[in-house]
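Section handout 9: paired folding examples.
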Amino acid sequence: MNRPTGFAEQPIWTALGLLVVCAGPLILLAALNGYVPDDDKVGVVVTGLVLTPLTVVVLVLAVVGTVRDQRVWRDLDTAGVRVMGEVTSAERVWCGEDDRCTRVRMLVTVPGRPPFTTSHLVGGEEIIEVGTRIPVDVHPTRDLFRLVADPSTGGASR
């Protein structure tokens, strides 16, 4: 699980998303304020009325999802236990047109809970060998975990 990206960390995508999502209310506002010719007004108003609820749903889902992701991240920060996951398989794969990644399968053992396996794509040219131990933060009672980039700094992977 990656730390939720803040709006300030992706300003272009946030601005573009808000522009697209807010098209319904903007269309409706333009039609009701007289910026649309009378011949087309009914069609533009109907289009605005159809797209506006979609805007509300998308914005609510985005806010609820972001709040939930931040809550999960805080839960791992406060109650997380650092364990070592063992790489059981590592395979080099393409993760873009010119980029190579390593698909890593790991066995993670948590004290007091059954072990579980997980799979991740690790970017970059770094070769990860089978048997390598990677630090993982795991919630002791819930099914939450995240890889840790550097155990000495405690920074989380992105």
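Moving on to protein 2 of 2.
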Amino acid sequence: MKNFCRKNKVLSVMLISALFLSCDTSEEKTEGEKIIEKSIEASGGENYGNAEIKFTFRNREYKSKRNGEKFRLERLVKDSTGNTTHDILSNEGLSRYKNGEVAIVPDSMVTRISDGVNSVHYFVQLPYVLNSPAANKELLGEDEVEGETYYEVKVTFREEGGGTDHHDEFVYWIHKENYTVGYLAYRFFTNNGGIRFRKAVNPRTIGNIRFVDYKNYKTDDLSTPLRDLDSLYEAGDLKFFSNIETENINVSINKNN
């Protein structure tokens, strides 16, 4: 167990509505909730609520549009022959179009396709996607990573409203002064499970919303506490896994809503 201010210590898919619902203000907020709210404000705040966001990720085109609790998430894939698959996830469920024609999605594939669309939008739009009544946010303490001090906030999701992967666990390192997310770690249980640690890089502000890319690392020791991953990263004990790069970002804000 770490001390609160010790300086040197040795993901998945969430609820779709986590992208769009507001925090529950009916009860007094925890310290973790307050920090997440400040992080959301520092990264775009109310601009998220009426934004249409387009971007490219791994040669696939994505678009999200929201208005209050209404949402629409899209993914457009073009294969080498020019055929297109267009998936749309909204309050009404999942729709798929192939070359502009409605396609029937087998029940066995609905969750897999929906999770695939949602997961990309989820990580691109952090920390706003943590603005969910199903999210439990706990301040674990503070720590120093690469010379900067961060709050460590653990996020889990309740089963009710928490999505298909509500068992997944997250820790976010949120800068103590500017409240931006510098690092995150998560434990997932699908496909035999795993642990990832991401460092945010290439921060830029587009349409008054902050976006980042990530350096993605992993450990094969699945018993590792998520809070220890920052120290393992600094010690060079994590394995580089991939670059997570979001390209061609375009943001439109509907100020009439």
